[in-house]
Amino acid sequence: MQERREFLSRAVSLLGVSLCSGAVAGLLTSCETETMKSTGAVSTVSVATEPSLQVVGGAIKKTFAGNNGGRPVIIVRTAEESFVVFSSVCTHAGCEISTPRSTDESFMICDLPGCGHGSVFSTTDGSVMAGPASAPLRSFSNSYNPTDKILTVHF
Q: How many CB atoms lie within 10 A of CB 84?
């Protein structure tokens, strides 16, 4: 997101276009989409009812009503009591990335039919491991209650 803003700011400066500050601000914020804005919403997942999340390295895609722009998130169990939650929206083309194919894989690929350009993202931090994507996946904070086996995702 910051890279786009910097690019637009430089492009405007290089072209010598004189815009009022309100127009520039509108141009820069138009790069943001609903999937990038924090809503303050909270959703929960019962880890006990998700077989794939029973083991470290397991992952699921899950949609939470209007959160993440109505698109699924990817939840990965990284340790016995730790999870990461990422937007499934590829930062390069806006299509949906796949979950890891096995608990041994430490990456997710944008390889779905009709879009699959092959960008690879880390399951630990959402960073780009191979392009053409250049920005990491959006991550959402979360907390896990091991007693109740409930994962809370903050959007």
A: 21
